[in-house]
Design brief:
With 626 residues, this protein is α+β, with helices and mostly antiparallel strands. The chain has 16 helices and 26 strands.
Length: 626
């Protein structure tokens, strides 16, 4: 028979091993959860970035094709080469994302270009993607070219490093013309997009690729990316023709451990995809630090428990003393975690009175421990949430013992801060709540970044006026509002006179100051409900609402002319421009669309320029009936 001492030792060994394995399992599971949370968080960041970059490139292409297409008449029998070239140059000056704008005839020969050196060159577009019939009005993208423009460039190959030389991306868009086939040829400047992308995503954190839908690379922030006719096989496996968005893990350098957390977004309008890669090692750096912290806490506890267990078997008399030492070590380690964690922690009693806070709470809110102990956490309320918000919070806490979400509180200095908050109820053995523990982190920077991305997408960077995208939304809403209330609406097209002269004579800084000053003055003379947007270059569009009839708009047009003509101080000079204004009304003819109103206002503005500038013209269909 087995001796009692051996049986006791065996039972103890089995129980102890099971305990150690349980601790390691729980710790490993907790670390796994933290790791998955870090991965998911970086996937969300990659998603926000890829949507932002896709939106930037799509809007740039859309604005370019629209503006350049408007410069080419639909009837090629009236083709004015000088006029089109001047229009192209005008677009180019306000579009840093472009290298050149050109017009191809049916034989793919350049007949008009913003760069005269391009005229006469033949550009083969047969390999451009997607490969569609010539009569289809589809934007197509070619392989990147090496060089500054078509006149001194050549198609890149798979041996060409994008980072080594200047490149541009050719894009073609067939135009609707009568009598012959003409195509708009655009040379995109990838350096512009790379600059904006690198401002938002440092290369040490991640990289960005832009590819055609056939996985041919167009541009990237990675210095080792190959451009030209070598497709990215890993991206091609994503089946971009079936999925517009996705997330995946990517091995950027097989065998070298350069793995990324990646997200892709296919353009909603054009045949390209944007892929954002965040370096996995960088994304998991914070998790690695937490892993080291937990290891520092867990390993000493396990070692201490081993010592206590062996001592328990050998010396029964020292059991209580060793148990007390173990409890003391546990309290020290718990206090260390409480004090050193980066998340703020609040502990309250069952009535919500603050019992304790940690150092991170002071760092985030600005309040010291002695300023908040004994008070209610509602002292942090920012006033951004109504009573219903807190009612739902307390209902969830009482029903489930848990609540998590985002909340806006205020800092001691008065600033409003956004927090990711989790509140848990701590019950006793009978289920009665004894304490509440709230853990929160400061996410104000993330919220501000999201707002900044929204602002970039909908407002002009120079004048901070609504851009074309937001103008379209405002105009649609104003038309529905006018229809319901049986009122008139005016669309005003404004073009600054002599702006090109000032820009060429005094430089772009002077031109920028003129645009900012004039837009500010014109916005001040409009009413609160009206909208002033920048249409591009020196063109502005105003939407006048709540008009009883067309005559209500005339005083506003006079004020716009006066505001545009006021002198502008620039250094030791006084600069002065005027405005040519055209207006189209939406009232009796309710069949008009937003495009019709904009086109009519543009035509009326052109009549104002022909009549001598610094005046306005009201669109009259009779002027264009002959």
């Amino acid at each position: 028979m087995m001796m009692p001492e051996k049986r006791s030792w065996l039972k103890f060994s089995i129980a102890f091993i099971a305990f150690v394995l349980s601790v390691l399992s729980v710790t490993g599971y907790a670390l796994w959860l933290l790791r998955m949370d870090a991965i998911h968080s970086n996937f969300r960041i990659a998603t926000l970035l890829v949507q932002s970059f896709e939106n930037l490139i799509t809007q740039s292409l859309d604005a370019t094709t629209l503006a350049a297409g408007n410069r080419v008449p639909s009837d090629d029998s009236t083709l004015d080469v000088d006029h089109i070239e001047a229009g192209f140059l005008r677009i180019l000056r306000s579009s840093p994302h472009l290298r050149s704008l050109s017009l191809l005839d049916a034989s793919h020969r350049i007949i008009v270009s913003s760069n005269p050196a391009n005229v006469g060159l033949t550009v083969a577009t047969g390999s451009y993607f997607p490969n569609v019939n010539a009569d289809q009005q589809v934007l197509r993208i070619g392989l990147p070219w090496v060089g500054r423009d078509f006149s001194q460039g050549r198609v890149s190959t798979s041996k060409t490093l994008v980072d080594d030389v200047s490149t541009f991306i050719p894009v073609v868009q067939p135009l609707e013309t009568q009598g012959s086939h003409m195509t708009l040829l655009v040379a995109l400047n990838p350096d512009y997009f790379q600059g904006i992308i690198l401002q938002q995503l440092d290369i040490d954190v991640g990289t960005v690729e832009v590819l055609r839908l056939d996985a041919i690379p167009l541009l990237a922030t990675a210095p080792t990316m190959m451009a030209g006719d070598h497709p990215n096989d890993e991206i091609a496996k994503l089946r971009l023709d079936e999925h517009e968005f996705g997330q995946f893990e990517y091995d950027a350098a097989p065998g070298h451990g350069q793995q990324t957390l990646s997200a892709f977004q296919v353009s909603r309008l054009y045949p390209f995809v944007v892929v954002v890669h965040l370096w996995r090692d960088v994304a998991l750096q914070r998790w690695m630090n937490e892993l080291k912290t937990i290891a520092v806490v867990v390993l000493p506890i396990l070692i201490a428990l081993c010592v206590l267990a062996v001592a328990f078997y050998r010396r029964q008399l020292l059991l209580k003393a060793q148990q007390a030492e173990s409890e003391r070590l546990q309290r020290v380690n718990a206090a260390c975690v409480f004090s050193n964690t980066r998340e703020g922690i609040i502990i309250t009693d069952a009535n919500g009175t603050i019992m304790d806070v940690n150092d991170a709470f002071t760092h985030i809110t600005g309040y010291h421990r002695d300023e908040v102990v004994g008070r209610n956490p509602n002292m942090l309320s920012s006033g951004c949430h109504d009573r219903a918000f807190y009612d739902v919070m307390w209902r969830d806490l009482k029903e489930t013992g848990h609540w998590d979400g985002e909340i806006w509180n205020h800092h001691k200095n008065g600033d409003v801060i956004a927090e990711k908050l989790t509140i848990s109820a701590v019950p006793d053995s009978k289920g009665h709540v004894q304490q509440y523990v709230a853990v929160f982190s400061d996410i104000t920077d993330i919220k501000n970044y999201q707002n900044e991305l929204e602002h970039i997408a909908r407002y002009d960077a120079l004048t901070h006026l609504p851009n074309r995208l937001m103008l379209s939304d405002r105009l649609c809403q104003a038309m529905m509002h006018a229809l319901r209330r049986e009122q008139w609406l005016g669309v005003v097209f404004i073009d600054l006179d002599r702006f090109k002269f000032i820009n060429d004579t005094y430089g772009h800084d002077a031109g920028d100051q003129v645009l900012v000053t004039v837009s500010t003055r014109m916005r001040q003379v409009l009413r609160d409900g009206d909208t002033l947007a920048r249409n591009g270059g020196d063109e502005f569009v105003a939407v006048l609402v709540d008009l009883a009839d067309a005559s209500d708009a005339l005083p506003l047009l006079d004020r716009l002319l006066v505001a545009a003509a006021e002198p502008i101080e620039f250094g030791s000079f006084f600069l002065q421009v005027s405005a040519s204004i055209g207006i189209s009304f939406y009232g009796d003819e309710q069949s008009k669309t937003t495009e019709t109103l904009m086109r009519e206002a543009d035509m009326a503005m052109y009549q104002a320029k022909l009549a001598g500038k610094n005046q306005y013209r009201i669109f009259d269909p009779c002027d264009y009936s002959h």
